[in-house]
Amino acid sequence: xxxxxxxxxxxxxxxxxxxxxxxxxxxxxxxxxxxxxxxxxxxxxxxxxxxxxxxxxxxxxxxxxxxxxxxxxxxxxxxxxxxxxxxxxxxxxxxxxxxxxxxxxxxxxxxxxxxxxxxxxxxxxxxxxxxxxxxxxxxxxxxxxxxxxxxxxxxxxxxxxxxxxx
Length: 166
Ligand code: HEM
Prior knowledge:
Blueprint: H1 2-31, H2 39-75, H3 80-108, H4 119-138
Helix pairs in contact: 1-2, 1-3, 1-4, 2-3, 3-4
The protein binds protoporphyrin IX containing FE (HEM).
């Protein structure tokens, strides 16, 4: 069991290093594109960003999330800081999708699209990753009292649908 946890955690960290580096690097690369670039330069940056996204960044994200999900069950860490971390990971996934959209848009508009400024994306990525690392390394004791009472106890109400047969 201990060995399995070590291996899966190693895979988790290796994949998220790649994913995180890509989330910072790709917006910077996309911003290198100039509207008046020649066809050769355009083709190079277009290929690099496209294959970087589809063959490196997205697989790394899938492996990081899959290994993280496996770890969740191996370690049984169903605790508030982990749920806070998962909410922030959802933000990273949204950022990932947004960057994918920029990659596609650069292709759709041929050589004429003005690149988006990379700074807001880089700042968003770095902020999310720093907060995730602070949570996962500090494992703060958040407690359940920040959740309102009505979410913590049964309300004794009828289900809006017929009950599932037992
Ligand atoms: C759906 C996505 C993810 C899931 C389900 C997940 C889940 C987990 C779990 C269960 C652990 C083991 C915690 C423990 O042993 O106490 C872990 C460790 C870790 N995770 Fe994630 N994680 C995800 C994404 C991420 C991301 C995006 C980052 C960083 C940006 C990250 C950084 C880390 C680090 C650094 C560790 C090692 C912490 C330690 O051993 O003390 N994880 N993750």
